[in-house]
């Protein structure tokens, strides 16, 4: 039997999260025959998969939503300041229906491999449903979509129920009457723990590294709040894009904490703590830059933890002390620290009693074995590169992305990698992505990709490729920006530190406002780092 004939498109998009959905809409608008492959059964990406109890956004919903269609904003009603997963997933569904996107999406279909055919000027893609090909391949595969299961001996032996927060069963889980172990204390765990605790007979939290967390102060939104946002949303979003590092509307810090009096310091930290949410980090403008400044913010949060948690030993174990605050994505919680005051919730400090094995019955630490009905792994993701390297695209000369990125990911503007023509990344490493309100960064990258495709169309070009020298300079610039801050001091997933063997490189670009300025300058110079071509290699046949 001969191989089935490949499905042929102008552009293939992988992933139907917020990035893939907007990309498809824009490609259609350009008159291109685009198709999306998505391994899930529906749209939403992150919000399709992360259905663990308590999952919700940490950027206010009014802002954590698309800006490209004012009618979406007019017709969608967010119920809470921070919407929960079902509502965000329903929003993705609403957008897909409104713009009739699903007819060009193949669900339950994984992209398994992709290879550039230089002679044909095509990406040849292998999907779980058969082959496909297109001159343009766009990876909207997500920065936090490749779940990471820790390599704990005996994990497969456990006879009880096993869950990962990022692969939560759609039918939900009933923990009533059960003794539950949770492993990990990152953002996912911090959201899930209070809700699981409300149900379970007993909950034991296994913590290796404590995390800083700020109360969300979540609340129902009123009509007046929604209307006030709608009236000025375009203007306020534009302001945040132009003036903030993370594209989140907030009041900007007025001064460095090192110039504040003790009273001013306390008042501003308290005001931000009472307001709640991640803009606590914007209290002063030197918090991520200076160790002494950072220590004030860190101590303020530790003091709050000590106030909330009644058992002093547990409180001290929950206080992060060995990395600066804000150098990992700050967590946002509802009653996380309060949960440790409940009689049936206990903390196991894995720094003191390391986790040794998972057994048939439960978990063994150096203090002994404990039996559980269920183990929840809240152990995170192979972030930023995982989903791309799962496909491991093969570029020019048969070179794999995993080879090109052996020392850490290299992508010009976080958008394209040299040696991989016509392959675009949305919020790839080297772009602001995970340090921002991601929907804003997604929209920026989708728009940038469309600009490149329009330039190619206008000049009759068939290839676009990042230039190696410009790419090296960009990667050096990304690293230099990180090195000027405290960020590299934490063993974070931003650094690849959560995955054994992953190169330790700070992956995102710090400052989406500065990134936008750089991109605008490059656009004004007609994109010197991206070369266009018509024939074989882009560099052989530059078309302007
Ligand atoms: P995703 O939503 O991850 O979508 C990628 C899609 O690609 C997935 O559906 C996946 O199944 C699919 N895919 C991947 N590989 C393949 C393949 N080989 N074949 C087929 N399909 C594939 N960001 C914020 O800014 N604010 C927040 O409040 C926020 N909250 C978050 C909460 C959680 C629990 C998590 C995990 C992340 C959160 N994020 C948040 C980050 C979030 O990932 C982004 O905001 C955004 O949803 C990413 O959209 P995306 O389309 O780029 O990627
Ligand atoms: O994952 P994480 P996450 N033994 O990597 C621990 C976004 N998000 O899913 O720090 C024991 O942060 C690990 O310990 P350590 C957000 O961007 C947002 O929680 O490596 N423990 C850590 O405690 C976030 O940053 C929201 O010592 C092990 C935990 O598992 C990102 O997604 C909600 C271990 C993993 O934490 C990822 O968050 C959820 C082992 N072998 C997610 N291996 C919002 O609030 C790992 N751990 C919007």
Structural write-up:
- The protein is of the alpha/beta class and 544 residues long.
- The chain folds into two domains: 301 residues, 3-Layer(bba) Sandwich (FAD/NAD(P)-binding domain), CATH 3.50.50.60; 191 residues, no CATH class.
- It is 32% helix and 16% strand.
- It contains 15 helices and 21 strands.
- The chain has a five-stranded parallel sheet, with helices on one face. Strands 9-18-10-11-14 form a five-stranded parallel sheet, with helices on one face.
- It is globular and about 70 Å long.
- It starts with 6 loop residues before the first strand and ends in an 11-residue tail after the last strand.
- 48% of the residues are buried.
- Bound molecules: flavin-adenine dinucleotide and 3-acetylpyridine adenine dinucleotide.
- The site of 3-acetylpyridine adenine dinucleotide has 27 residues, from helix 5.
Order of strands, widest sheet: 4-3-2-8-19
Question: CATH topology of the largest domain, anyone?
Answer: FAD/NAD(P)-binding domain
Oligomer: single chain
Bound molecules: flavin-adenine dinucleotide, 3-acetylpyridine adenine dinucleotide
Beta strand %:
15-25%
How many helices? Answer: 15
Low-confidence stretches: 537-544
CATH architecture of the largest domain: 3-Layer(bba) Sandwich
If you average the pLDDT, what whole number results?
96
Query: How many distinct beta strands?
Result: 21
* Main sheet attributes: strand count, strand direction, barrel closure: 5 strands, parallel
Note the gap between the termini. Answer: 45 Å
Q: Name the CATH homologous superfamily of the largest domain.
A: FAD/NAD(P)-binding domain
User: Total domains, how many?
Assistant: 2
């Amino acid at each position: 039997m001969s191989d089935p004939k490949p499905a042929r498109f102008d552009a293939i998009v992988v992933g139907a999260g917020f990035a893939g959905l907007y990309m498809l809409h824009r490609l259609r608008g350009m008159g291109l025959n685009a198709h999306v492959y998505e391994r899930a059964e529906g749209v939403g990406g992150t919000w399709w998969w992360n259905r663990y109890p308590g999952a919700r956004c940490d950027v206010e919903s009014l802002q954590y939503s698309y800006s490209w269609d004012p009618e979406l904003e007019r017709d969608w009603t967010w119920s809470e300041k921070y919407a929960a997963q079902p509502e965000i997933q329903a929003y993705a569904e609403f957008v897909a229906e409104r713009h009739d996107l699903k007819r060009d999406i193949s669900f339950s279909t994984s992209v398994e491999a992709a290879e550039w055919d230089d002679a044909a000027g095509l990406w040849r893609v292998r999907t779980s449903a058969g082959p496909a090909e297109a001159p343009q391949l766009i990876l909207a595969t997500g920065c936090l979509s490749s779940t990471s299961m820790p390599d704990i001996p005996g994990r497969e032996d456990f006879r009880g129920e096993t869950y990962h927060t990022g692969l939560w069963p759609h039918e939900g889980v009933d923990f009533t009457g059960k003794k539950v172990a949770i492993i990990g204390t990152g953002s996912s765990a911090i959201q899930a723990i209070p809700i699981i605790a409300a149900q379970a007979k007993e909950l034991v939290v296994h913590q290796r590294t404590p995390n800083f967390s700020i109360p969300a102060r979540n609340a129902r939104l009123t009509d007046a709040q929604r209307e006030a946002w709608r009236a000025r949303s375009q203007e306020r979003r534009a302001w945040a894009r132009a003036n903030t590092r993370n594209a989140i509307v907030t009041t900007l810090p007025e001064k460095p904490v090192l110039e504040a009096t003790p009273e001013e310091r306390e008042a501003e930290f308290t005001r931000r703590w009472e307001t709640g949410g991640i803009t606590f980090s914007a209290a002063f403008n030197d918090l991520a830059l200076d160790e002494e400044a950072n220590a004030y913010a860190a101590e303020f949060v530790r003091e709050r933890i000590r106030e909330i948690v009644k058992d002093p030993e547990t409180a001290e174990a929950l206080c992060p002390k060995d990395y600066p605050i804000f150098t990992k994505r700050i967590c946002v919680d509802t009653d996380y620290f309060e949960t440790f005051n409940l009689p049936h919730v206990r903390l196991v400090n894995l720094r003191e009693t390391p986790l040794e094995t998972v057994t048939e019955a439960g978990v063994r630490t150096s203090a002994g074995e404990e039996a559980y009905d269920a183990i929840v792994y809240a152990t995170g993701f192979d972030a930023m590169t995982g989903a791309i390297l799962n496909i491991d695209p093969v570029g020019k000369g048969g070179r794999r992305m995993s080879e090109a990125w052996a020392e850490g990911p290299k992508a010009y503007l976080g958008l394209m990698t040299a040696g991989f023509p016509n392959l675009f990344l949305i919020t790839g490493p080297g772009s602001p992505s995970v340090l921002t309100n991601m929907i804003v960064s997604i929209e920026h990258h989708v728009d940038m990709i469309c600009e490149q495709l329009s330039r190619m169309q206008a000049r009759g070009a068939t290839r676009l490729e990042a230039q190696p020298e410009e790419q090296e300079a960009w990667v050096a610039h990304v690293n230099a920006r990180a090195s000027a801050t405290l960020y590299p001091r934490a063993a974070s997933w931003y650094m690849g530190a959560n995955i054994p063997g992953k190169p330790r490189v700070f992956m995102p670009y710090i400052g989406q406002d500065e990134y936008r300025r750089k991109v605008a300058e490059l656009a004004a110079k007609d994109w010197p780092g991206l070369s266009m071509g018509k024939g074989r290699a882009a560099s052989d046949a530059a078309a302007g």
